[in-house]
Amino acid sequence: MSYNSTNYWSSSPSRPDSDNPFEKYKAQRNSGSSNLGFRARKRGYGINKALKVLGLLFVFGVLVVAWKGYTGNLYGYGLGSLDASGEHTAIKNAGSITDLLAEKAAARERLLASKGNVQVGKEKASLVMLVRNRELKDALTAMKQIEDRFNRNYHYPWTFLNDEPFTEEFRNHTTRMASGATEYGLIPEKEWSMPEWISEDKFQETTKWMSEKNVIYGDSRTYRHMCRYNSGFFWRHEALKKYDWYWRVEPSTSFYCDMNYDPFTFMRENNKKYSFVISLPEYRETIETLWSTTQEFAKLHPQYIAKDNSLGFITDDDASKGIEGTDYNNCHFWSNFEIADLNFWRGEAYTKYFDYLDKKGGFYYERWGDAPVHSVAAALFLPKDQIHFFSDVGYNHVPWGRCPADDESHDYARCMCPFEREESFDLHQWSCLKRWWKLHGKSWGVI
Ligand SMILES: Nc1nc2c(ncn2[C@@H]2O[C@H](COP(=O)(O)OP(=O)(O)OP(=O)(O)O)[C@@H](O)[C@H]2O)c(=O)[nH]1
Ligand SMILES: [Mg+2]
C-alpha cells in the first residue's frame, strides 16, 4: 500500500499500517527498540534537563533583579531601603522620574535644534494655518508638501490658530514636521462668536432657509465664525503681530511644484500685496447683499478706491461705469491659498471696510465668505498690478486643482501634477482666470 497523507491521518491508531513511514517511525520511537528511538528518548531527556537548568537560572535572575530593584541599585530609583547616610532611597530618588521627564523634553529640544530650524528666508513672514485639533492628519499632509516643495530651504516659521487650545499631540506632530519654528495661538472668544448686534432670531431664519435650499455650510454657525475671523481678525492675533507677510495654508491642500525662490521676497521686491492661484465665482445666495453694501461703502469713502483697480475682474459690466454702475460677477480669488501683505489688512481702508461689513451683519444673516470679502477689497483698494497670480504654482484644494501651463511645468523635476493641463481648473468654464487675463491685456492661454 502506498502512502498518502489523507488515509494516514484518517487511519485508526489501533490499526497501524506497517508500510506507512510515519507509522513505522512512531512505532520505533515508542518501543525504543531502534537507534532512532533510543536517540529520541535520549534527546528528550537532555531537553528536560536543559529546561530545568534554565528554569533555575530564571528564578535566580528574578530574585537578583527584585533585590537590586528594591535596594535601588539597579535603576537608581529603587523603592526602598536605607542608604549609607541612613536616608531612605525611595525618598532620596523621588525626583528621578521628574528628571527623566525633563531629560525627555530636553531630548526633544535637541532633536529640533539638530534639524537646524534657524530661519534662512529673509522676510518677516510666517506660514499660517487656522485649524482644528481633529484635522491633524490633514494639516500634516499639507505641511509635508509645503516643506518638501519650498520651506525646507527657507525654514520660515509656522503659526497655527485655533478657537480651542491645541493638544500636545497636535503640537508635537506639527513641530516635528516643520523645518522652522512653530507657534500655537488661541483665538479670543470675542473674535469667534456672534457680535452683540446680531439677532439670534434673524440668524436662525437664515440658517433655516439656507438648509432648505441646500446652500453649502448654510446652516453652520462655526463656518460663519471662521469666515468672519478670516475676514477681519487673524492678522490681529498676538502671534502674527511681528510679521509683515503670511502664506495661508489649509489642511488637505496639495502643492505639486518645487518653489525655488522666496515668494515673500518676490512679493516685497515687486510691490505686490495680494496673490492667488485659483479664481472662481462665489455662490450668489451666500452674498446677496455684499455688493450693494460695498457700493454704499465706496460712496461713503471714495478715497480708498484705487485708480487703476481690478473692477474689470469682478464685474462683467462695462467697468467704466464705476462701482455704482456695475454688478458683481461673483468672481473671487480662492482664499484657501493666499500669500499676502498683512499690512494691507491692517491698513485704514480695509479696517474701515471690514467694520462696515461687520455692522451690516452679512457674515451671519447671509454667509459672506472671507474669499469674496478679501477679493472685493483687494480688487478695489489695490492698483491691479499689486495683485499677483502665482502662475507657477501647482495647487489643489478639493474639488479644484490647477497645474502651470508654461514650458516650465513640463519640467517634471519641478512639478508632479496628477492630472493633465487640460484638466486644470484654469480651463474650466467656471474659472474666472480669463477675466483676469483680459483685465491685464494678455491673450487667453499665455501665462
Ligand atoms: N479652529 C477651527 N478652524 C476651523 C473651523 N472651521 C474651519 N476651520 C478652518 O478654516 C479653514 C477653512 O475651513 P474649511 O472647512 O476648509 O472651509 P472651506 O475651504 O470653505 O470648505 P471645505 O474645505 O470644502 O470644507 C480650514 O483651515 C479649516 O481647518 C473651526 O471650527 N475651528
Ligand atoms: Mg478648505
Automatic annotation (TrEMBL):
One of its GO terms (cellular component) is Golgi apparatus. It holds the Pfam family Glyco_transf_15. Residues 1-33 are annotated as: Disordered. SUPFAM superfamilies: Nucleotide-diphospho-sugar transferases. GO terms for biological process: cell wall mannoprotein biosynthetic process; protein N-linked glycosylation; protein O-linked glycosylation. Residues 16-26 have a biased composition (Basic and acidic residues). The chain crosses the membrane at residues 50-70. GO terms for molecular function: alpha-1,2-mannosyltransferase activity. Signal peptide: none annotated. Keywords: Glycosyltransferase, Membrane, Transferase, Transmembrane, Transmembrane helix. PANTHER family: ALPHA-1,2 MANNOSYLTRANSFERASE KTR1, MANNOSYLTRANSFERASE KTR2-RELATED. Belongs to the glycosyltransferase 15 family. This is Glycosyl transferase. It comes from Morchella conica CCBAS932.
